[in-house]
Design brief:
The protein has 264 residues and is α/β, with parallel strands linked by helices. The chain contains ten helices and seven strands. Helix 5 crosses helix 10.
């Protein structure tokens, strides 16, 4: 599905993103219109945060399928979701292995921006929804200063031209007009786009950057693939960007997320 693979960095994904992902899950679930009886598909489920919230909402009257292309991610999700009524499957978010009009709700939390062809994926979300069903998708802002680790990816892109196109694609849906147009192009109606902001605090720059240096997620894996001098250049650029001085002092980043939803 994508050249930006999360599989090698799955073990550190929650270290980097768990507390951040949880901040925006409630808004995603609310936008999706989930109800107690719904049949739900969570695309790019990762380690299962959104699937867990969906399962709690639909209860025993509904069901949740969490799908991801990364087997290590699914293993991590399986460990976290023990006892939850969530079925986990391997799937490509651009070619969903389900028939037409199967689900009441499709959700995708911080996944669509990594897909090579987001419009193709949204078309698939539309296809598998029943008439009247709703999809809800979250992405990070197109403004680098309002992201956490996408700003690190931009610094990486300046050191690794071969990754530039894929990394810049992370920002294409973070503009409300583009995001809404993508939903409309795929046949969705009653499209709504909301912006959520949360202040994420770190004890120090090392607290922020440690997951990247540890190879967590796509960003960490791409960072580790750089030459040592390139890694140092990325680190210095990001340090100057987010804190600027005194690496041991606490700081905060205001993170902005767009959530788009639409009805079939």
């Amino acid at each position: 599905m994508t050249e930006l693979s999360f599989s090698p960095g799955a073990s550190g994904y929650d270290q980097m993103f768990a507390r951040i992902t949880q901040l925006f899950v409630p808004a995603l679930i609310k936008s999706s219109g989930l109800a107690e009886h719904h049949r739900v598909l969570d695309v790019a489920t990762g380690t299962g945060a959104a699937a867990h919230a969906a399962a709690e909402r639909v209860g025993l009257a509904g069901y949740v399928i969490g799908g991801d292309i990364s087997v290590p991610m699914l293993r991590a999700a399986q460990h976290k979701l023990q006892g939850q009524a969530v079925s986990l499957v391997g799937l490509d978010g651009q070619r969903l292995p389900f028939g037409d009009q199967v689900f009441d709700t499709v959700i995708c939390h911080f996944g669509l921006m990594f897909f090579p062809d987001p419009v193709q994926s949204l078309s698939e979300f539309h296809r598998v929804l029943r008439a009247g069903g709703r999809a809800a998708v979250s992405v990070t802002s197109a403004i680098p200063a309002r992201t956490l680790y996408n700003r690190v990816s931009l610094a990486i892109a300046r050191q690794a031209p071969a990754k530039r196109e894929a990394i810049h694609r992370l920002f294409t849906l973070g503009d409300p007009l583009r995001f809404g147009a993508a939903f409309e192009r795929c046949g969705f109606v009653d499209i709504e786009i909301i912006t959520e902001r949360e202040r994420v605090r770190f004890n120090s720059f090392q607290d922020f950057f440690r997951p990247v240096e540890g190879g967590a997620g796509m960003t960490g894996q791409t960072y580790l693939a750089l030459a040592p001098d390139q890694r140092e250049a990325v680190r210095e650029e990001v340090f100057a960007d987010v804190i600027g001085s005194s690496p041991d002092r606490p700081f905060a980043i205001d993170m902005e997320v767009l959530i788009a939803s639409g009805r079939r």
